[in-house]
Amino acid sequence: MSNVRLEPGDTAPALDLPDDTGTVHRWKDHAGERVVLYVYHAAMTPGCTKQACDFRDSLDSLAAAGITVLGLSPDKPEKLAKFREHDALTFPLLSDPSREVLTAYGAYGEKQLYGKTVTGVIRSTFVVDVDAKGRPTIERAMYNVRATGHVAKLRKELGV
User: Fold this and answer.
1) How many Cβ atoms are within 10 Å of 63's Cβ, its own excluded?
2) What does the alpha-carbon distance between residue 124 and residue 141 come to, in Å, rounded to a whole number?
3) What is the mean pLDDT of residues 51-61?
4) What is the pTM for the complete model shown?
């Protein structure tokens, strides 16, 4: 099983997922925005919590630069709602329990874990430029990112 790898300039795969409140997000809903779609393994795990809190703490500066943040994991909306409440997260957390969208982004598949090949979520971040008509284009695709320090690195790369 080879993983898809998106590249800058690619059309972003479709997005049609509910968030932790039940609101469905599609790219057309974010027309005219730059969106950071970050993929994490599981709500309320240490690394994922650190990363989510880093995004939460950077949200004002990202928003000031016209960037919207969306989290994405295979967790069900109910678990995501608990995660949002527990850590006072202030951005939507999208739910993909079927892993179809994760797979389309190359963020689910084979990976190395402690020297073994396993199948699972690949911590990834995508910067998507959504034009005025709602057409999404990959601006950046980063795979196998680290939970700690990633948001600071991303902000530096984006000049935020």
Assistant:
1) 14
2) 7
3) 95
4) 0.93
* 134 alpha carbon, distance to own chain's centre: 18
- Locus of tokens 């479709």: 14
Is there a contact between 158 and 65 (Cβ–Cβ < 8 Å)?
yes
What is the token pair recorded at 29?
A: 């809903």
pLDDT digits (tens, 9 = 90+) for 62-117: 999 999 999 999 999 999 999 999 999 999 999 999 999 999 999 999 888 788 98
Gyration radius of the chain's alpha carbons: 15
Residue with tokens 């396993």: 118
**Residue 41 and residue 73 in contact, taking contact as beta carbons nearer than 8 Å:** yes
Contacts of 125 (CB under 8 A, 6+ apart): 36, 37, 38, 39, 140, 142, 145, 150, 154
The answer to whether residues 108 and 2 touch, using CB atoms and an 8 Å cutoff, is: no
Catalytic entry in 48, 52, 80, 145: 48
What tokens appear for 59 in the block? 């949200």
Q: Verify whether residue 53 is a known catalytic residue.
A: no
CA–CA gap between residue 88 and residue 85 (Å, rounded) = 5
Does an H or E element contain 151, and which?
A: helix 150-158
